[in-house]
Amino acid sequence: MTVAAVSAWATISIESSERFAVFGMLAAGSLAAVSLQHLASSRPSETVRQMVYASAGSLAITLVATALTLLV
């Protein structure tokens, strides 16, 4: 949800040449957030699954935002 909100904000308010760096930071930040969450988690067996979901979701959102940036 945060990735989608920041991607929408970046698409609207940041110049197109600088958006791609923001999209990369969002993808890295989402993986870092999942990793930090699992440091304190009692279920480490689900860490890889949730990291895959977080990275796939972030990638999908940033791909849509990138496509919008390139088309507009």
Task: Explain this structure.
The model has no long low-confidence stretch (mean pLDDT 82). This protein has 72 residues and is an all-alpha fold. It contains 3 helices and no strands. The two termini are 23 Å apart. It has one domain. The radius of gyration is 14 Å and the shape is elongated. It has helices at 2-13, 16-39, 47-71. Helices cover 85% and strands 0% of the residues.
How are the secondary structure elements laid out?
Elements: H1 2-13, H2 16-39, H3 47-71
Output the structural class: mainly alpha
What's the pLDDT, averaged over the residues?
Answer: 82
Total number of helices: 3
Pattern of helices and strands: HHH
Radius of gyration: 14 Å
Kindly report how far apart the N and C termini lie.
Answer: 23 Å
Q: What is the count of distinct domains?
A: 1
Quick one: how many beta strands? 0
Q: Beta-sheet strand percentage?
A: under 5%
Weakly predicted, low-confidence segments: none
Shape: elongated
Provide the helix percentage: over 70%
Biggest sheet statistics: none
Features:
about 70 residues; mainly alpha
What would you say about this model in short?
The protein has helices at 2-13, 16-39, 47-71.
